[in-house]
Design goal:
The complex is a heterodimer.
Chain A lengths: L19 E2 L2 E5 L2 H18 L2 H15 L5 E3 L1 H7 L3 E6 L9 H15 L3 E6 L3 H13 L2 E7 H6 L1 H9 L3 E5 L6 H14 L4 E3 L10 H9 L1 H14 L5 E5 L4 H7 L9 E9 L10 H4 L1 E5 L1 E6 L24 H9 L3 E6 H15 L5 H13 L8 E6 L7 H7 L5
Helix pairs in contact in A: 2-4, 4-5, 4-9, 5-7, 9-11, 10-11, 14-15
Chain B lengths: L2 H12 L3 E7 L8 H10 L4 E5 L10 H12 L4 H14 L5 E5 L1 H7 L1 H11 L3 E4 L8 H9 L3 E2 L1 E3 L5 H10 L4 E4 L12 H12 L6 E4 L5 H8 L4 E4 L1 H8 L5 H20 L2
Parallel strand pairs in B: 1-2, 1-9, 2-3, 3-4, 4-5, 6-7, 7-8, 8-9
Helix pairs in contact in B: 2-4, 2-12, 4-6, 5-6, 6-7, 10-12, 11-12
The chains are: A alpha/beta, B alpha/beta.
The structure holds pyridoxal-5'-phosphate (PLP).
The site of pyridoxal-5'-phosphate has 22 residues of chain A, from helix 5, helix 11 and helix 15.
């Protein structure tokens, strides 16, 4: 028991053997997939402790992805805000332009170990699809990416990038034609082709062991940031801020700091038109626990348990669920989950571009917008680390469209 | 003994195979479901599987997905589905009806409320595609307390040891998914079904029905020789979607298919 009388949680002990984070997580899939998940869990369990595997992962991250990514002190912006010092963890500088590649490098190594010749993925904004197509090209694996037909239209640039990389993009016409439907279709494909196919899930969601292994691959973000911050400033940060779609960049930053009680954490969901309007993608702010895509977690659903459509200017956050570990961290009170609406995110996109010369992804802009609110409430000697999860090039057409400009 | 177990015991005595038929409640129109259920029984269906529409039916192929979408378009819910069973029971107390669907609508209602309402409506069992035995514990207790059967799937990828476990959790019958894939898929391999059924049959006394990929009298006959019964679904949902919105015509479209398959099963 700690001083506050609260039970101390051993964060590293979760998920448990069956993939549960408290009541969240688990393995809610059809019987056909259980075998494949068992196999994946077994292989990952062995490789996790295997030095050679870890060394190969680290080597790829260094020489292919370009890690470590810098921790950058946004001095001008911090000065303007007049409060805490803002540091940006530059995942936008990774190969392919976002944190997503940390995970696809790891899962591609697993795919290689399992000897499967084909990989599939779901994608929303197309960043995970691109990161998957990239590692597939490098390893000579056949790659098919499921993408909601609506997103194929919204993210034409990334669709073409995937095609150039040799992947086939399959538009999904069912349901709401967005990320959640792409994930349904990928799960259907996987149960059909389970013998020769490895499913590379793009975030810390899905059935066990995905939330765990994706977290472990992304935790490099937080490990680096922690060491860099100590190195540059001699102390730990006071707050961490990251956007939360499925939650992989956020958990990657947060996880290595969970035991540091002095570090506050903010997960920023997509508020869309505003949480109060119901038109958003913020299940941790305005959802309830339920079961979707293989795990129990907070969801956006109606009173009959049907999953409802989400709204966000950023395709990468447009998902009605969230990784189960975040649901657990919310209920434990360890992480604060807040929401930033479309307009606030767009303003932060412009602000960061003009003030620091860094064009962030619209997803990451949600985190930046929250940091903008948080910094002035803190003192000048305090530190906020914001996860700049990706670069904004992919969003230029979306922003131009909002500005009424045809590029 | 549950209505499902009674039915299988009777079929065994009679030397007949079970014909299990799946439709989605409220598809293509709300009014069609009840007459279609009665028509199915009239033409020889032994067990009705009534699909509970869900926004994300991840084990369904395109045909049944569309059935769910049509039903949801007019707001059909789990509560509505129980109401249909209650209506059905007014004139039929013998044909087992089980609800087939996904975990989330049941979660949302609450396990205990679900079990109470389902039992009161005359539902006999539940098959939740995404609730494997390791996640089913608390629901199982609620179902058992209301004498509702818990139907589980076995798959071509299920290993013997696990199948034995599943059989211990299951009651009523076991549902063997004939192929790796989604409902309505077209790559049924009778030899592999035979091998798996022999393996699983040795592990349990529960009746074994086979579904996924059975589309007509011929495929039904081939599979029925190996099992205690067959499950048909996509072929019915497809026919219903093409029958228009007149309830009698929808029911008739299903009746004709059921009639053929029943005859084939009785003439094995
Ligand atoms: C740049 C960027 N950040 C964040 C996300 C959201 O994903 P997650 O919450 O898993 O980090 C995406 C998803 O596409 C993305 O492209």
């Amino acid at each position: 028991m700690s001083d506050s009388g609260k039970q101390k949680v051993d964060y590293s002990a979760f998920p448990d053997e069956r993939g549960h984070f408290g009541i969240f997580g688990g393995r809610f899939v059809s019987e056909t997939l259980i075998y494949a998940l068992d196999e994946l869990q077994e292989i990952y369990g062995k490789l996790k402790e295997n030095d050679e595997f870890q060394a190969e992962f680290d080597r790829d991250l260094a020489h292919y992805v370009g890690r470590p990514s810098p921790l950058y002190h946004a001095e001008r912006w911090s000065r303007e805000l007049g409060g805490a010092q803002i540091y940006l963890k530059r995942e936008d500088l990774n190969h392919t332009g976002a944190h997503k590649v940390n995970n696809t490098i790891g899962q591609a190594l697993l795919a290689k170990m399992t000897g499967k010749s084909r990989v599939i993925a779901e994608t929303g904004a197309g960043q995970h699809g691109v990161a998957t197509a990239t590692v597939a090209a490098r390893l000579g694996l056949k790659c098919q990416v499921y993408m909601g037909a609506e997103d194929v239209r919204r993210q034409a640039l990334n669709v073409y990038r995937m095609k150039l990389l040799g992947a086939e993009v399959i538009p999904v016409e069912s349901g709401s034609k967005t990320l959640k439907d792409a994930m349904n279709e990928a799960l259907r494909d996987w149960s059909t082709n389970v013998d020769d196919t490895f499913y590379i899930i793009g975030t810390v969601a899905g059935p066990h062991p995905y939330p765990q292994l994706v977290r472990d691959f992304q935790a490099v973000i937080g490990r680096e940031a922690r060491a860099q911050c100590l190195d540059m400033t001699g102390k730990l940060p006071d707050a961490l801020v990251a956007c939360v779609g499925g939650g992989s960049n956020a958990i990657g930053l947060f996880h290595p700091f969970l035991d540091d009680e002095s570090v506050a954490m903010y997960g920023v969901e997509a508020g869309g038109d505003g949480v109060e309007t119901g038109r958003h993608a913020a299940p941790l702010n305005d959802g309830i626990p339920g079961v979707l895509h293989g795990n129990r977690t907070y969801l956006m659903e109606d009173e009959n348990g049907q999953i409802i459509e989400t709204h966000s200017v950023s395709a990468g956050l447009d998902y009605p669920g969230v990784g189960p570990e975040h649901s657990w961290l919310k209920d434990l009170g360890r992480v604060n989950y807040v929401a930033i609406n479309d307009n606030e995110a767009l303003a932060a996109f412009r602000k960061t571009t003009r003030t620091e010369g860094i064009m962030p992804a619209l997803e990451s802009s949600h985190a930046l917008a929250y940091a903008e609110k948080l910094a002035p409430t803190m003192s000048k000697d305090q530190i906020i680390i914001v996860n700049l999860s990706g670069r904004g090039d992919k969003d230029i057409l979306t922003v131009a469209d909002i500005d009424g400009i045809t590029v | 003994m549950s209505r499902i177990s009674q039915k299988f015991a009777q079929l065994k005595t009679d030397g007949r195979k079970a014909l299990v038929a799946y439709i989605v409640n409220g598809d293509p129109v709300r009014e069609a479901t009840l007459p279609t259920m009665h028509k199915m029984v009239e033409e020889g269906v032994d067990v009705i599987e009534l699909g509970v529409p869900f926004s994300d039916p991840m084990a369904e192929g395109p045909v049944i997905q569309k059935g769910h979408e049509r039903a949801l378009a007019h707001g059909v819910s789990l509560t509505d589905t129980m109401a249909v069973v209650k209506e059905f029971r007014k004139t039929n107390q013998t044909t087992p009806v089980l609800l087939m669907g996904y975990a989330n609508p049941v979660e949302r209602m609450g396990y205990s409320v679900f079990a109470e309402k389902a039992a009161a409506a005359g539902v006999d069992g539940l098959l939740t595609v995404d609730l494997p035995p390791e996640e089913v514990e608390s629901l199982k207790t609620e179902l058992a307390s209301r004498d509702l059967d818990n139907i589980f799937l076995l798959a071509p990828t299920t290993r013997s040891e696990r199948a034995r476990d599943i059989a211990q959790h299951a009651s009523g019958f076991l549902y063997y998914v004939s192929l790796k894939g989604v409902t309505g898929a077209g790559h049924l391999d009778v030899d592999s079904v035979k091998a798996k059924l022999e393996e699983f049959g040795a592990l349990t006394d529960l009746p074994m029905c086979v579904g996924f990929g059975i589309k007509d009298a011929e495929s039904a006959s081939k599979v029925a020789r190996l099992a205690d019964g067959v499950v048909i679904g996509s072929v019915l949902v497809d026919a219903m979607s093409k029958a228009g919105t007149d309830s009698a015509q929808v029911a008739a479209s299903v009746g004709a298919i059921v009639h053929d398959i029943r005859q084939a099963l009785d003439n094995l």
